[in-house]
Amino acid sequence: MDRSTNLDIEELKMTREQYILATQQNNLPRAENAQLYPVGIYGWRKRCLYFFVLLLLVTMIVNLAMTIWILKVMNFTVDSPLVLQSDRNVTVNARNHMGQLTGQLTVGADAVEAQCKRFEVRASEDGRVLFSADEDEITIGAEKLKVTGTEGAVFGHSVETPHIRAEPSQDLRLESPTRSLIMEAPRGVQVSAAAGDFKATCRKELHLQSTEGEIFLNAEKIRLGNLPTGSFSSSSPSSSNSRQAVYELCVCPNGKLYLSPAGLGSTCQSSSSICLWS
Length: 278
Known about the structure:
Layout: H1 2-27, H2 44-73, E1 90-95, E2 101-107, E3 112-115, E4 119-122, E5 129-133, E6 138-140, H3 237-241, E7 247-251, E8 257-261
Antiparallel strand pairs: 1-2, 2-3, 4-5, 5-6, 7-8
């Protein structure tokens, strides 16, 4: 009995609420002559939209066709190298974020020109710099620099190097065809031939000069060839008839050396007239 009574009370409440809701809706004022506006794009706007969509589609198709044509003409493939060809020259420019030119590489029929702050050539294996050039200096990092031209290498100014060495089994030659060859060092110049001769030849005069030290000749034999020989008249008849085998080395006041036949004493004064000829 209690359960059925509760159900009847709930149904009455629901019926009452529905009646009140329906009565409120009927009592709401209705707007007279209400106008309905359609929602969407109609007329010439719709046709313009379709036209722009069609134009965008045609532009995409043309761009795709041009891209495919450029790839085919330029031979852009995954396995083949990139080839750039031109009837005149090929120029590659590099610019910064402000549009300023920072580097340029031009390949022409007569020359290959590169304009940049620094130009480098690196090894493919370890990335070591083989050649670099800038405004201040040029650096060659290869293990060996080989010049195969018949005229060699020409330098307009000085060349600094700690070591000059010829190739194995080849002679090293320093030559100045028209001017002088000067070798200078503040701590000394050393020339040695470990397994051969040392020769110094000249057309005119050979000067050995030491401003503060001495000239030291150290050898088992020291030979001075083609020295002039002076003569003197001896009072001894035996000395004139005998063959002269021993000579005396004499020095003129100007430093000239000459030979004088040896006697019991010094004969340099007797044959010193040879100093007047020099």
